[in-house]
Amino acid sequence: MDALAGWLREHLPADPATPSVVHGDFKLDNVMLDPDDVGRVVAVFDWEMSALGDPLVDIGILLAYWSPTAPPEQRDALTTITNRPGYLTPREVVERYAERSGRDMSAIRYYEIFALFKIAVVIQQIYYRYVQGQTSDGRFATFGARVAYLARHAANLAEMSTP
Fold first, then answer.
1. C-beta separation of 162 from 7 below 8 A
2. Residues 52 and 87: beta-carbon distance below 8 Å
3. Are 78 and 28 spatial neighbours (Cβ–Cβ below 8 Å)?
4. What is the pLDDT of residues 102-151, one digit of tens each?
5. Whole-angstrom Cα distance, residue 119 to residue 152?
6. Within 10 Å of residue 123's Cβ, how many Cβ atoms?
7. Comparing C-alpha atoms, which of 27, 20, 85 is closest to residue 53?
8. How far apart are the first and last CA of the chain?
């Protein structure tokens, strides 16, 4: 995680010319879809992490959650469903966003790595509380392995992204 933090600092993209509202936790379970118009978002929930900034942060988070966030042996109710028929591939998500927004997506890998790092930090603090006995929810017992999995995944992406 320390190496990832360094990589993120070294590769930080320039601020966007026009900042926008960033949700901060944009993923499928924070949206409501129209049952009559497939894929149309009618509401976005869970705004407590919102800020003004680079909208690609939200696309990075969406991409991070588009892939599994747990090792294969720990796939559970928190596992993504986007690998099932009918969902866009991560590449298609990026292409559609680029087409509709007109934004430059050349640094999208950075935002995906940042999102994986962020999710790992959030999960680590939950795991820490579990280990310290501050929460007793048994689902958190395996979160240490999830943190390691996310950190390795982010490190691999960073390594592939560095010339």
1. yes
2. no
3. no
4. 999 999 999 999 999 999 999 999 999 999 999 999 989 999 999 999 99
5. 13
6. 21
7. 20
8. 20
Is residue 163 predicted with pLDDT exceeding 80?
Answer: no
Residue 26 domain boundaries: 2-161
Do 122 and 65 touch, CB atoms closer than 8 A?
no
CATH of the domain at 151: 3.90.1200.10
Distances (CA, A) of 149 to 71, 73, 122, 141, 152: 6, 11, 14, 15, 5
Report whether pLDDT(84) > 80: no
Rg (CA), the chain: 16
Three-point CA angle 47, 48, 54, nearest 5°: 70
Number of compact structural domains in the chain: 1
- For residue range 9-65, list pLDDT tens digits in order: 999 999 888 889 999 999 988 999 999 998 789 999 999 999 999 999 999 999 998
The stretch 67-95 carries a mean pLDDT of: 77
The tokens of 85 are what? 């028929």
Binned at pLDDT 50, 70 and 90, residue 81 comes out as: confident
Q: How far is CA 156 from the centre of its chain?
A: 15
